[in-house]
Structure formats: C-alpha cells, structure tokens
Automatic annotation (TrEMBL), chains A, B:
<keyword id="KW-0378">Hydrolase</keyword>
<feature type="region of interest" description="Disordered">
    <location>
        <begin position="234"/>
        <end position="259"/>
    </location>
</feature>
<dbReference type="InterPro" id="IPR036663">
    <property type="entry name" value="Fumarylacetoacetase_C_sf"/>
</dbReference>
<dbReference type="GO" id="GO:0016787">
    <property type="term" value="F:hydrolase activity"/>
</dbReference>
<feature type="domain" description="Fumarylacetoacetase-like C-terminal">
    <location>
        <begin position="64"/>
        <end position="306"/>
    </location>
</feature>
<protein>
    <submittedName>
        <fullName>Fumarylacetoacetate (FAA) hydrolase family protein</fullName>
    </submittedName>
</protein>
<dbReference type="InterPro" id="IPR011234">
    <property type="entry name" value="Fumarylacetoacetase-like_C"/>
</dbReference>
<dbReference type="Pfam" id="PF01557">
    <property type="entry name" value="FAA_hydrolase"/>
</dbReference>
Length: 315, 315
C-alpha cells in the first residue's frame, strides 16, 4: 500500500495511491493510521503527486540513527579523529525535530550555515513498548519513506562542541510524498533500493540502501525504545545512506564510476582524503536538490525536490 | 489564569481552575489553546487536582536549556573538567522528548540507570517564527509550569561520549498539574518563586528560580528559534534550578542552612567537592519525589508527586 498526505490542516488528509488515482482513508490522517485507525477506503479521486505534503507532516517523535557506519568513519577520517570501535555494535542516534516539511518546500539557508542535504531512509512506526526486542520492533514498522535531513554544517562543530547534540544545526527535515508499507517493498529489515541524489541536475549519488547498513531498522527501533515507549507516529531514520568502495576505501564519485554520495559532506570528505582539501561548496540559494529511490526501475516514494532559499526571504 | 488538563484521550481536556472549581474551554485542548483557539468557558464543574494529567501531555517540541549556569559549572567541577567561558553567554540546549507523563505517574527505573530527578521551570509557547528576537519570543510565552526532567545518570556519560546528545538517558519528563499564564505569576522573564523538592519526605531543595538564571525565558525561546519555526505547543525548559551559596561556593544542603538542590546529581557533586566522594544514592524503587513551587506562601502549579518503580513492573 502506498500512502500520501494531501493538504488539509496541519496533519493533512491521508490517501492510498493506486495507478494514478487516490482513495481517502476513514481514519483521516497518517498519525491515526499508524495508531491502528480505521483503514476503510473512500471513493476514487484525482491524485496529483505535486500536491502532496510530507507523508507524515507532524510526528510525535523523530530519532535519527547512523546505521551506515561507513559514513561516520569517513567523517572522522576527514577530520583526523578516530572512530570508537563501539560504533560498529552500538548505534549512534539523536533526538531530532519531529515536524517535517513537504517534499517540495524550500530549504532555508543563510551564508554562514553551510547548508547540506542528507538522503536517508526512514520508517514510521505504530506503538512500541519500552524494552521491545528487535523482533517486536519489526512488527511495529508500518511504513517506509525517504527523508532529507537538512544539516547546517557551518553550525555543527560549534554545537557538537557543547556536548548536547543538535538544535540549531538540524532544522526541519523533509519527507517524501509517499510512505509505503513494508510488504509492498523490497524490504527485509533493510530497504533494497537505490537512492538517487541530484544537485542542480548533476548526479551526486546512487547508493544502495540495502548494503553497508550495519544496523537494520528493527535494531534501530529497539535501540530507540530502550528506556521509553515510542508512540504511534514515531519516525526512525537510517542516517545518511553510504556505501564503501569495493576496494574498501571511500566511495568514488558517480562520474568516476562509483556510487557517489548522499550528502555534500561526504563528497567533501572524500575530496579532503584524496586531495587534501574540499572543493565542492555547500548548498547556496537557488540550488536545487532531488532525492528519489528506485528498485527494478520503479520509483518507490515519489521525489523530494527542494530549492534552497535565503531564509529571511521565505516570508 | 490557571489551566489544567483532565483525562480525555491522549491530549486530554483543558479546563480553567478557579477556587476549587473548573470550567472547560471551547477549543478543548492545551495544544489548541496555545495555538490561539477559542477560550470561551463552559459551566462550572468539579475540580479534583489529583486527576490532572500533565498540563500539556503531548507537545510538538521540547527544547531544554541550561539557564542556571551554576549547575553546569558544578557538574564540570565535580568531574574535574573546565567549563567553557562561552556557556555564560551562549545557552546550552538539547532536543528532548516532547511527550510528558502526568504529575503522579511513576518514574521507571532499572538498577544500572542511576535515576535522578531535575526540578525545572518550563514555558509553553504559541507560534514563534524563525529568527524571532527575545522581545518577539517574550510575547509568544503563553503559560508557565514545572517540569521534572527525569535523568538516567548511569547512562549519561556513555551516551554523551558518543557526541550526539541524550536519547536513552532522558526518557519522558513529567509536567505539573497546572500551567499558569504569565500575568498571574511573579514573572518578568524569570519566575520569582521558590522551587521545593522533597525526596522521601526530606527536603532536598528550596531554590529560588528567579536568582542565578543566567538566561531568561525570552532569550531561551529566541535561541531555540534561531534556525527553525517553533509551533504552538512548544515547551522550553530552564534546566535544573540551581543557586550559588552567598559566599560564591557551591550551595549548602537545606539542613545546613542552604537552599539545597533541585537534583541528586548536584547534591552528589557538592559532596564530592567537599568530601571527595558522593554519599547520596540515586533514586531507587519505592522512593517518592515531590516538586512544587511557592510565591508569597501560595502554591503556584500544584504538586508533581512521583514514585520510582522498577520499569518492567509498570505494565
């Protein structure tokens, strides 16, 4: 089942999308559906993908993992820091902002923010009790989508230096138009799909989400639930999708035959490791980002397509 | 105006409390009232304080500051670390869990969690646009309450060592029964009230929330809004209320004539600084915590009164 949220108040109106048409769901919102609400379908109506809001505009919680440990290792390598060995068996996760922009909403930016994208896969859950096992967590994963975790790299070092995680440096992320139930996807705890990223029409990445994901989604959800109940309407992110090069080194750019990157930071890290300095700039006003995922040539979640805008011109 | 939320679904039912009776509000929930909903009052009904849920059971966002920099300095001093000078002019803040337990709900615990309370003051806001000034932020502060920021000290060093802030170590906090509009409080950006904390009937703290608060609430709210819009239904916490001793040193215990502490960690830090080791244990199953605030001998927000329970006995 492919689900989208159409504009209708802050939580929108949930529809099931099939072959160019849509049908409303009795329980009305994605939040209610995730909580086991009535999924009876209404009559067919038009489906205009470009009207979609985030598939879940307001979640009750967003916890973002770093399941592609290769990405974390590259970040550390580029700044000359060691990565703790425990990161290979103890997931890194932060509490993020649980309010999401639409897939076509602008990305606010300012000159010193160092604005970056991060293409991620995310799962939307029903209720998960505290202390759930990965098996229990797996059964609570009700839908999967794409997420663009906007990251303000210019603000991150200063903020992480304070030791309490991200606030300024992680404003609202965007979610894809569609969230899809696991049974309708090549999914076995990992999503076996290619995540495509373009910046200004040039391919930045075509990474495989099912490879190099050290922790699968049930493990991430169970990690999130260690000391708290997760309510229906929780979003758990995978962290930036990242693949190693087949030779074990950092991945090569797409135009050099590699799979490229799901964020500019990783591209810049690889430039730093290979050439001693980063050449690629952060996102600037007017830049356009496109993120989508494919399996067997089929688009899975619709397209996240955002333009970067100087933030005080937004209003 | 004094507002409370009575049980009625996950967001409850908002009432105005006056002299032993209550009156329902047309817009029904605290979330809707914070968003400028219809505040027309219904007929008088009974008011049973012990029935109250958290004054805002589900917020859209919780950002917790550390405005009492004295507390932060003590934490660092106890572990032999320097506190960066910038903490005196750049607020420390983390993204916390925005779902709150009721004032009488149990505190889940496990033997290795090192469970602690933290008595804080918090403000509930209407919408705050990105980039708001402190003056603009001040006008968006619609109500004030108490918050018990449950902190699992046994899990904090390991989690902060990973560099991405708190997840496991900060489960759901509790909010007081009442939230009160600023005009009905001794409030000028800081709350001029005494915060009382008892553990098992023994006074732990009677700190003054209006003193030693380096950053006032409008400054904290503006800090939170630097790169994001804050929706109506945002909670901004003060961090643990903490006073210095008049001689400039760490505060003395209540039974030694001081104002004591708003968390066990601070008591243990002072023990460590004075005696070389902490004597006071963390909270254990069966322990009872009471937190309330007074000004001019009047109770302001009702009582947070929680019992610690071994977590897997909760269900």
């Amino acid at each position: 089942m492919r689900l989208a949220t159409l504009p209708d108040g802050p939580d929108g109106r949930l529809v099931v999308v099939e072959d160019g048409s849509a049908r409303a769901i009795a329980c009305r919102t994605m939040l209610a559906w995730l909580d086991g609400g009535d999924a009876a379908l209404g009559p067919e109506e038009d489906w205009q993908p470009e009207q979609a809001m985030a598939c879940l505009p307001r979640a009750w919680q967003f916890l973002d993992g770093s399941a592609y440990v290769n990405h974390v290792a590259l970040v550390r390598q580029a700044r000359g820091a060691e990565m703790p060995e425990r990161f290979w068996h103890d997931p890194l996760m932060y509490q993020g902002l649980n309010l999401f922009t639409g897939p076509r909403d602008p990305i606010p930016s300012a000159p010193d923010w160092g604005t970056d994208l991060e293409a991620e896969v995310a799962v939307l859950t029903g209720p998960v009790p505290r202390g759930a096992t990965p098996d229990e967590a797996a059964r609570a994963i009700r839908a999967i989508c794409l997420l663009n975790d906007i990251s303000l790299r210019g603000l991150i070092p200063d903020e992480l230096g304070k030791g309490f995680g991200f606030v300024h440096s992680k404003p609202a992320s965007a979610l894809s138009p569609l969230a899809v139930t696991p049974d309708a996807l090549p999914y076995d705890g990992r999503l076996h799909a290619t995540v495509h990223v373009e910046v200004n029409g040039t391919k930045l990445g075509e990474t495989r989400a099912g490879e190099d994901m050290t922790f699968d989604f049930p493990t991430l959800v169970a990690h999130a639930a260690k000391t708290r109940d997760l309510p229906a309407g929780t979003v758990i992110g995978s962290g930036t999708v990242s693949n190693r090069d087949p030779d074990g080194g950092p991945g090569r750019p797409v135009d050099a035959g590699g799979r490229g990157y799901s964020c500019l930071a990783e591209q810049r890290m690889v430039e730093t490791i290979l050439d001693g300095q980063a050449r690629s700039p952060w996102l600037r006003p007017g830049d356009r980002v496109r993120i989508w995922a494919e399996a067997d040539g089929h688009d899975l979640f619709g397209v996240i397509e955002q333009e970067v805008i100087e933030w005080h011109k937004l209003d």
